[in-house]
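Our collaborator T.R. sent over the components below with a one-line note: 'Predict the complex.' Nothing else. No constraints on interfaces, no templates requested, no preferences about which chain binds where. So this is a plain run: every listed entity goes in together, and whatever single assembly comes back becomes the starting point for the next discussion.
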Amino acid sequence: KNEVEQSPQNLTAQEGEFITINCSYSVGISALHWLQQHPGGGIVSLFMLSSGKKKHGRLIATINIQEKHSSLHITASHPRDSAVYICAVSPGGATNKLIFGTGTLLAVQP
Amino acid sequence: EAGVAQSPRYKIIEKRQSVAFWCNPISGHATLYWYQQILGQGPKLLIQFQNNGVVDDSQLPKDRFSAERLKGVDSTLKIQPAKLEDSAVYLCASSFGGDRGYGYTFGSGTRLTVV
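Returned assembly:
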């Protein structure tokens, strides 16, 4: 079982819909990251969370440390939001490598 | 603010040849990471530097891969000799360091194809 699980793996939405991507993890963490990767593109960091909620434009990320769960929400989705969304956690400590989820492939249709 | 710069963007080589990738992190970022992302998989950490020193290279295939970070700034990752299974995107990332990896930023990656 992966230490970081995402759901769903694939998601197709119509333009304008509200989208939720979920992430659950089984290790202790110091921070959780939401990342975006367009096909053939690099990885862009969207959020880094250690508690509560953050909002940037149409994107909202929440984390519940007790439940070991985080969600990424996209409001008023647009075709340009189509990408792979990756949840990754920082276990902390000396080696600050990220543990990555398998990603959620989002396709927003016009 | 300039991002993490990587070059080249694409590289095609024959197996058993050697190749080198370059990374320039964000100014002020003490920690630099090299990740390997094979198609359809999540990135895997190859090596992490804190300034000049290596913090974690446990998943670096040291018989063929090497990396260095001179003067605690730019870094190069080398593969010699390359194998077919090395075909992947090689991502460089940097952060301020510390416990949370604040400011974690990825470069656009180098897509390596070994034929």
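Summary for T.R.: The interface with chain A takes residues 31, 33, 41-43, 45, 48, 55-56, 91, 93, 95, 97-102, 104-109, 111 of chain B (CB under 8 Å).
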